[in-house]
Automatic annotation (TrEMBL):
It comes from Gordonia oryzae. GO terms for cellular component: plasma membrane. It is a multi-pass membrane protein. This is AI-2E family transporter. PANTHER family: PERMEASE PERM-RELATED (PTHR21716:SF53), TRANSMEMBRANE PROTEIN (PTHR21716). The chain crosses the membrane at residues 26-44, 50-68, 80-105, 170-188, 209-242, 248-268, 275-299, 319-346.
Amino acid sequence: MSQPGWALADLDRSSVHPMVRKAAEWSWRLLLILVAIYVVGRLFKQFDEVTVPLALAILLSAFLAPAVDFLNRRRVPRSLAVVIVMFTALGVVAGVLAFVGRAFVNGFPQLTNEVVATVDQTRQWLTNGPLGIDPSQVNHLGNNIIDLMQHNQEKLASGALATATTATELVTGLLLMLFLMIFFLYGGGQIWEFCAQLIPRSSREKVVAAGFAGFATLVAYVRATVVVALVDAVCIGIGLAILRVPLALPLATVIFLFSFIPIVGALISGTLAVIIALVTQGWLTAVIVLAILVGVMQLEGHVLQPFLMGRSVRLHPVAVVLGIGAGIVASGIVGGLLAVPVIAFANTAIRHLCGNPLTEVIKGDGAFEAAPDPPIWDRLPLDPEIGDPDADTDRHAPEPDRENPDPGDASPPDSGRNGSDSDRKRS
């Protein structure tokens, strides 16, 4: 009974071209992977009050885990080491926020006065300058803004209520994040091994090792990102303070926070600093601030990140930009913040699951890196050997010296035949 069924199956497979059959097999597998990724993303967004604190707790645990291990290795009980590190981190964050908040409160009036003065100068230029705009139109602009605010008081009130609700959610998420961090720092490895029991026994050990390798990548990524963000904030903040740009310290704090989103974050925070410098100090100061930003970003990209992150976290810029773009579209700023760590973790874990040894994966051996292509396509339309499988080999082979030809080189048919005869006679 089974033989006719197998015969029909073989007949059906033989009637389909092998290329079509392979494309269909790859297609449904890729569709299943994409559906799984989509479902995970939807679940993450649906339960973001829990998943976002969970993801941030993992990142912050990756940053604080080396400090806990440092104390634990020196015979400090792990529970006490977790308490010491957590309280130290909370104290540093609270002190920085208090200092920045005081600087913002003290510097905001100066910013307001300088913005008002700039607006007045712009208004005078619009009316008395080459544009010659009617003064009544310029003066009505401020009145229109006031009327717009008065006619939308209900929307502003609802927005304030939504802000209060968001603040409540932020406090709840912060407490949940701190709670998770305590247990991740104390026994995160045991939690991961317990979760890995869902994996079949034959693959469980490899999956556990891949998870540890991915977490090692997160440790390197978060540590390097914090150092790079701190260097960016200090250098740019010093430059803003020297140029007497208002709110230099709050702007440096914004630059520090946005630096956790590679490429895009530095662009957004740098644009904000340039705009404030332009509005308050003029175009010359804005150009100087822009030059400082470009210089710091070059230092970050060519010196700090390669030195601090190493090869294990090295990702192609195309993957970084596309990942951040997809994360921002899917989940806003949180998605842009988590996109690169997720890609780095997945890159390391998948490479280990594909058979690369754990030591090579952590060191970054065999990782894909951006490299220049050889010059090929400029000669393609003029190459007479298009389609020849040996054309690529011939293209990369060194060209013969036309002035001093090698006796062993090929020659035209007639001369080659005569030459071979004369050589035969000599021998």
